[in-house]
Amino acid sequence: MEKLLDLSGILDEETFHEYVSKRLDFPGYYGFNLDALWDCLRDLAMNNPGIQIRLEGLADFRSRNPDWAHKAIQCFLELEEESGARVLKFDDSPSGEGLIHDA
Q1: What is the pLDDT of residue 55?
Q2: What is the pLDDT of residue 101?
Q3: 25 lies in some domain
Q4: Around Cβ 39, how many Cβ atoms within 10 Å?
Q5: Cα(first)–Cα(last) distance of the chain, in Å?
Q6: Looking at the 3D structure of the chain, how many domains does it have?
Q7: 67, 11 contact by CB (below 8 A)
Q8: CA dihedral defined by 32, 35, 37, 42, rounded to 10 degrees?
Q9: 7 is in which domain, residue-wise?
Q10: pLDDT at 10
Q11: Which residues of the chain are under the pLDDT cut of 50?
């Protein structure tokens, strides 16, 4: 199973949590914080052995949210390290699936 997260259009922490929770089908009680992200990612990996999460648009995500983006991305890297889930990282957005915002 592969899940795609194109983070190129993420403007802030709130947008990130809304987008990720929908794309990864997190439960309704998701807490919209990094602890809740970790808990739900871990549950996702445990319930879907061999899952692959494709992170795209990392350059744009980091440029808009430099400090916070590092912490969020770290959750995914730790997931890969601890659970065996595979996390693919792309600075660009080859899928073009990211959020679009009016300038």
Answers
A1: 93
A2: 46
A3: yes
A4: 16
A5: 34
A6: 1
A7: no
A8: -150
A9: 2-89
A10: 92
A11: 101-103
Residue 14 lies in a domain: yes
Distance separating alpha carbons of residues 19 and 1, to the nearest angstrom: 19
Gap between the Cα atoms of 59 and 94, Å rounded:
13
Collect all residues with Cβ–Cβ distance below 8 Å to 103 and sequence separation of at least 6.
Answer: none
Give the CATH number, domain containing residue 73.
3.30.370.10
Alpha-helix runs per DSSP H in 1-103: 13-23, 34-47, 58-64, 66-83
Q: What letter represents residue 96's amino acid? A: G
pLDDT of residue 97: 65
Tell me whether residue 48 is exposed, middle or buried, using C-beta atoms within 10 angstroms of its C-beta: 0 to 12, 13 to 18, 19 or more. middle
Look at residue 38 and tell me if it is in a domain: yes
- b/e 58-97 (16+ beta carbons within 10 angstroms → b): bebbbebbeebbeebbebbeebbeebebebeebeebeeee
